[in-house]
Write a structure and sequence with these properties.
This protein is an all-alpha fold and 189 residues long. It has helices at 2-18, 24-42, 45-67, 88-112, 118-136, 142-160, 163-188; strands at residues 73-74, 77-78. It has one domain. The chain starts with a helix and ends with a helix.
Length: 189
């Protein structure tokens, strides 16, 4: 039942993300609560921990999108955060953070837990942390990171027998392709 509910909230989240609608952050606060129980019960511990991060980053993302980010307020009117490309120095730093988190999580999962999927679990978790931060900043490249995360997650969830989530992540991949194109048009306008 929770898997179906998580699936439904995930679809709503994607709809709002595709349209760059700040309501996506509300779904971002509900879905982690559902997913934490499911992941812990299946022994996918890094994804469990990731959902704690998702709750925190959802508040940050909601605030960032609503406040207009660094653009702030001009003339007393709220300015919405625009879709942009990630600056190259920021991309290099984000890549370094991803690699560091992946290594630390892999070591922890491999040596301190009974995880049967430490490599994939730590990979998707580390890249998801960076991708969610990119989403909160409205960087278009977040879609590319999500395509990679989603593709690896499909295999992971099939392997672990979480079939509704595997289907959800296939849908995520398709929407991420279209989302990238949509945000590209928003970037140009």
């Amino acid at each position: 039942m929770l898997e179906v509910l998580g699936f439904s909230v995930g679809i709503l989240y994607l709809w709002w993300e595709y349209h760059a609608d700040s309501r996506l952050w509300y779904a971002s606060m509900v879905m982690p609560c559902i997913s934490m129980w499911l992941y812990f019960s299946k022994g996918i511990y890094a994804d469990f921990g990731l959902n704690i991060y998702y709750l925190l980053i959802a508040v940050y993302g909601w605030w960032k999108w609503r406040s207009g980010g660094d653009a702030g307020h001009e003339g007393g009117a709220k300015k919405q955060l625009p879709v942009t490309h990630i600056p190259l120095p920021m991309l290099a730093a984000a890549t370094g953070v991803f690699l560091l988190i992946w290594a630390v999580l892999f070591f922890g999962l491999d040596s301190l837990t009974d995880s049967t999927v430490p490599l994939a679990d730590s990979f998707t978790t580390a890249l998801s942390i960076v991708a969610t931060w990119m989403l909160a900043r409205k960087y278009i490249e977040q879609w590319i990171a999500w395509i990679i995360v989603d593709a690896v997650s499909v295999g992971l969830y099939i392997y672990k027998g979480i079939y509704f989530y595997a289907v959800l992540y296939v849908i995520y991949i398709v929407i991420a392709f279209f989302g990238y194109r949509k945000w590209k048009s928003l970037l140009r306008s």
